[in-house]
Amino acid sequence: MGSTLSCIEILTVLVSKYIRRSSDKLNRDWLILSKGHAAPALYVLLAEVGIIPREELVKIQSINSILQGHPDISIPGVDMSTGSLGQGLSFAVGIATWIKFKGGYGRVYVIMGDGEQDEGQVWEAMTDAVRRGLDNLLVIIDVNDYQLDGKTSEVKPKHYMPLIWKTVGWEVFVCDGHDIISLINSIDNALSCGRPSVIFAKTVRGRGLKPIEGTELQRVE
Amino acid sequence: MIESMRDAVGMVLSELGSELDDLVVVTADVGRATRAYMFGKKYPSRYFNVGIAEQHLISFAAGLAAVGARPVVCAFSMFLMRAWEQIRNTVGRMNLNVKMVGTHAGFSDHADGSSHQSLEDIALMRTIHNISVVVPADVKDVLRSLPVIVKDVKGPVYYRVGRDYTPSITDNYDYEYELGKAYILEEGYDIAIMSAGPVLLESLVAAKELKRLGISVAVVNLINIKPIDEVLIESMARKCGRIITVEEHAIYGGIGSAVAEVVTQKYPVPMKFIGVVGYGKSAKNVKELWNYYGLNSEAIMKASLELLKLDVNIDETN
Is the pLDDT of residue B261 over 80? Predict the structure, then answer.
């Protein structure tokens, strides 16, 4: 729940303002929730825009529900089955590469976690994306300062990540991940910069649910 | 000049490149070693080298497939296994049309030793739902099967080939490749030997020797490990009553296990598994390793003679 609430504004802005949907794979946008454990945030927005029935939301994780604990492509509106961290960016690089090669106008949006930055595959993917000059690829990192075992600063510090992405060749932006205007400004700037871009969106885990806000608690006990 | 299965793979892909404009080849700094570069030279814009990054290699290819390209991944069999979880969780789970060619399989990378000799790949790939596993025996088998797999088979396939040593095995046999089929190379009724890959040669040699002793041996090319030809395996079990499997792979979870899964449930008969226990090592050639690990016609003959001592239940009506 904490991780869902930290990225809810990010997803809201993307789904309501940016993602262009179509059955044409090359001329539509792709949304990859690489931090798949924030699935409820995605499901809520898919229901909000009418892609999945609202009644499904309360059935999440039950055996008869279409909504699994992590996104699965059997769910309408889900572009990648995720849940295993570190794979979404590589998948997105593959999509963006082919769209660019075919001259499509589709863009690929990837939402990653800050804890996810620990995965070695992220390095493999971020270096390849720059080499391919993917100006149709935008990554937003939900910096909620927590990973499964506790604070990122204690488990494995991440403060150097923006510097690493920048050094590799990404255009790096920083914003307040709970401020709609801040998010929109950063996304607009990122989309017009002509390079693969990453936004470090500073967030608070469990935002809005006071008993767990800013803590590692998963839910209200 | 085609001298090996990897050469044949490179040639087939570069020929298919003109016919299939969605065909892309993806590799991880082993373009030369896997012969992927043969495609890359002809179609540089559809050839993607991601550097030494096998996990990214697989997920990247998965993304290409999801958006409509037809990716063929070429990497060393051993190091593709590094991305097992990516193969399972993205390629397999999403049932994406990614073809994965694992070269240097078995003992074929004889000089490099145990770090490079993949003896577990069939077992690892076979467990993943949606993924087919294909092990051609020689150059002719590659020429028969790879075009069909790339052009007509939808969904993920693991395609296992060796490095250099490629004796001609199936040149004189006439069959068209179809996913899921096994092929009887030699008919027989005392014992059925089932094998795939270059080591199939040893089965044919053993069958010939045993014939001289008056023992009738069937030899089956199990080119499709998954989906496996259950009908053919069951009929051989009924007819011969004894089965030997021979594989350039660990005896755990590989060809022997795949056959046994059918035999034990359809028509149980005694079996012997000939394969590897343990890791490989460096040697001056593949044959030296086959002999060292007991993957040769002598071992197959010995196993055959042991099986012949057993009373078996042959289905006379078959």
Answer: yes
Please check whether residue A133 lies inside any domain of the structure.
yes
Locate the chain B residue with the closest alpha carbon to A92.
B63
Express each pLDDT in B166-176 by its tens digit: 999 999 999 99
CA dist B74 and B46 (Å) reads: 14
In a domain, residue A64? The reply is yes
A140: containing domain: 2-202
Residue A74 inside a domain? The answer is yes
DSSP codes joined into one string, A132-200: TT-TTEEEEEEE-SEETTEEHHHHS--TTHHHHHHHHT-EEEEEETT-HHHHHHHHHHHHTSSS-EEEE
Interface of A with B in 73-92 (CB under 8 A): 73, 79-81, 83-84, 86-87, 90-92
Q: Is residue A209 part of a domain?
A: no
pLDDT at B318: 59
Q: What integer is the mean pLDDT of A123-131? A: 98
pLDDT over threshold 90, residue B26: yes
- Domains of chain B are 5-160 (3.40.50.970), 183-317 (3.40.50.920)
**How many CB atoms neighbour CB A180 within 10 A?**
14
Mean pLDDT value across residues B198-205: 97
Q: CATH number, domain at A31?
A: 3.40.50.970
Question: Which of A97, A99, A124 lies nearest to residue B48, judging by beta carbons?
Answer: A97
Residues in chain B whose beta carbon is closer than 8 A to a beta carbon of chain A?
24, 45-46, 48, 50-51, 53, 55-56, 58-69, 71, 85-86, 89-90, 93-94
